[in-house]
């Protein structure tokens, strides 16, 4: 019984004193400004449109041929895949498979809110 009472008193004491302790600590956070990320010179944007077209940096392409040429030109290329939210998943999966067959090892997904 006394252990239960001690635990209850200990818990109530923490519930009462915890808000007081957090109010005593003054924290001054630094002021920051929004910055743009540095451009990635080893990146290319591959978009999949609603109607299933593949666009590489905004231009319609023959997918595997262009991706292979891109990978040979820059082996460190990072392909950024952006698909329209209403695009058919099967088309997106085929685009990803084409990138893999082309030898591109870095693929990231871009989302837009």
SSE order and pairing:
Elements: H1 2-24, E1 43-48, E2 54-56, E3 59-60, H2 63-73, E4 78-83, H3 89-101, E5 106-109
Parallel strand pairs: 1-4, 4-5
Antiparallel strand pairs: 1-2, 2-3
**What's the order of the H and E elements?**
HEEEHEHE
In whole angstroms, how far apart are the ends? 57 Å
The helix tally amounts to 3
What is the SS-derived class? alpha/beta
Q: Main sheet?
A: 5 strands, mixed
Protein described:
This protein has 113 residues and is an alpha/beta fold. It has three helices and five strands. It has a five-stranded mixed beta sheet with strand order 3-2-1-4-5, covered by helices on one side. 10% of the residues are buried.
Key features of this structure:
alpha/beta; 113 residues; five-stranded mixed sheet; 19% strand; elongated; single chain
Short characterization:
This protein has helices spanning 2-24, 63-73, 89-101, and strands at 43-48, 54-56, 59-60, 78-83, 106-109. It is α/β, with parallel strands linked by helices and 113 residues long.
């Amino acid at each position: 019984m006394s252990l239960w009472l001690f635990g209850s008193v200990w818990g109530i004491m923490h519930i009462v004193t915890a808000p007081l302790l957090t109010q005593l600590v003054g924290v001054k956070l630094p002021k920051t400004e929004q910055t743009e990320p540095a451009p990635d010179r080893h990146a290319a944007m591959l978009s999949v449109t609603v109607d299933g077209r593949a666009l590489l940096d905004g231009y319609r392409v023959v997918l595997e041929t262009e991706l292979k040429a891109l990978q040979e030109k820059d082996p460190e290329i990072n392909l950024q895949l952006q698909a329209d939210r209403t695009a058919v998943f099967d088309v997106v999966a085929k685009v990803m498979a084409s990138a893999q067959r082309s030898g591109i090892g870095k693929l990231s997904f871009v989302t837009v809110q």
